[in-house]
Specification:
- The chain has 293 residues and is of the alpha/beta class.
- Helix content is 42%, strand content 18%.
- The chain has twelve helices and nine strands.
- The protein has helices spanning 6-15, 32-41, 59-67, 81-87, 106-114, 131-140, 154-161, 171-179, 219-229, 237-245, 250-259, 273-292, and strands at 28-29, 48-53, 70-75, 94-98, 119-125, 147-153, 180-188, 193-194, 201-208.
- The strands form two sheets. The protein has a seven-stranded mixed β-sheet, sandwiched between helices. A two-stranded antiparallel ribbon has the order 1-8.
- α9 (219-229) crosses α12 (273-292).
- It is elongated.
- The mean pLDDT is 96.
- The structure holds S-adenosylmethionine (SAM).
- The site of S-adenosylmethionine has 23 residues, from β1, α3 and β3.
Length: 293
């Protein structure tokens, strides 16, 4: 049974007596065009694998199974397992795992399920309540990924793809763009889901870079500087850095800013990723030297 249409999705939910749970971000996609566009954006073929987070009743999973060599779908809600058994029965290349994606050993899952394939991607209509933790765990775990193509809230999609200097640019933009090429592939209205979410949504396409966009000697320290720079958006970079690293470090902070040619009066949101990397490195050297003597 194809469940990409409102009447069929409603019928199968009724058949199994399931009311969608808001607390699990259950907004099921019921628009075949949107589903096709998501799958197309992931550039799948029969030699590629795909991890789907939250298959729900299986509408996107059915499209993925048609396009990819192997699909692994992780669903947290036990009630949906019998539904998936029915809707995915015709597809021999799909495995459904019951569990919480945030508790999974993802490197192991990729090694066990996708080895021997040409590439692997993540494709999902994400549960919006955990979008950021899911994206961060996919990126920080350094998985062998080609694309991450996911439906998220429109406002989150804008943040992920935001360029420096724009209102939406922040530490999430930097965390994502440090490792990926980010692009908003489509904006969709609430009417393509049942039940309808309260917000507009967008499909974001992240193409994982072969190596991070910029070089830094200490990645976690760079992100420490990034978070500090955005702690209070109305404050200058110098004020935010002082708040994080201490007023007594003002000289080291100013020297690092001078060395990298960054005006201390600028705001964090105007710095490019390359500038954050340079500043992080300069600051790490001076602060480490400062604390050593
Ligand atoms: N893929 C389906 C579709 O497009 O119609 C459902 C998408 S729905 C927005 C999100 C799905 O993620 C739900 O099925 C929900 O139960 C599941 N989910 C929520 N939190 C999860 C988690 N931590 N791990 C795995 N699945 C989760």
């Amino acid at each position: 049974m194809n469940v990409s249409h409102p009447a069929q999705a409603a019928a199968i939910l009724r058949k199994y007596g399931i009311a969608p749970k808001k607390s699990l971000g259950q907004n099921f996609l019921v628009d075949a065009n949107v589903l096709r566009n998501i799958v197309r954006a992931a550039e799948l073929d029969k030699e590629k694998g795909v991890l789907e987070i939250g298959p729900g009743i299986g509408a996107l999973t059915q499209h993925l199974a048609e396009a990819a060599g192997r699909v692994v779908a992780v669903e947290i809600d036990r009630r949906l397992l019998p539904v998936l058994e029915e809707t995915l029965a015709p597809y021999g290349n799909v495995a459904v795992i019951h569990g919480d994606i945030l508790a999974m050993d993802l490197p192991r899952l990729f090694a066990e399920r996708f080895s021997g394939l040409k590439a692997a991607s993540v494709v999902a209509n994400l549960p919006y309540y955990v979008t950021t933790p899911i994206l961060m765990s996919l990126l920080e775990t350094d998985l062998p990924l080609e694309f991450i193509v996911v439906m998220v809230q429109k406002e989150v999609a804008e943040r992920l793809a935001a360029p420096p200097g724009s209102k939406a640019y922040g530490s999430l933009s930097i965390a994502v763009q440090y490792r990926c090429e980010a692009e908003v592939a489509a904006v969709v209205p609430p009417t393509v889901f049942i039940p309808r979410p309260d917000v507009d949504s967008a499909v974001i396409r992240l193409r994982k870079l072969d190596r991070p966009r910029v070089k830094t000697e200490d990645e976690s320290f760079m992100f420490d500087v990034v978070r500090a720079a955005f702690a209070q958006r109305r404050k200058t970079l110098l004020n935010n850095l002082q708040a994080r690293f201490g007023k007594d470090r003002k000289e080291a902070l100013l020297a690092a800013l001078a060395e990298t040619g960054i005006d201390p009066g600028r705001r964090g949101e105007t710095l490019s990723i390359a500038e954050f990397a340079a500043l992080g490195d300069a600051l790490a050297r001076r602060l480490k030297r400062g604390s050593a003597g």
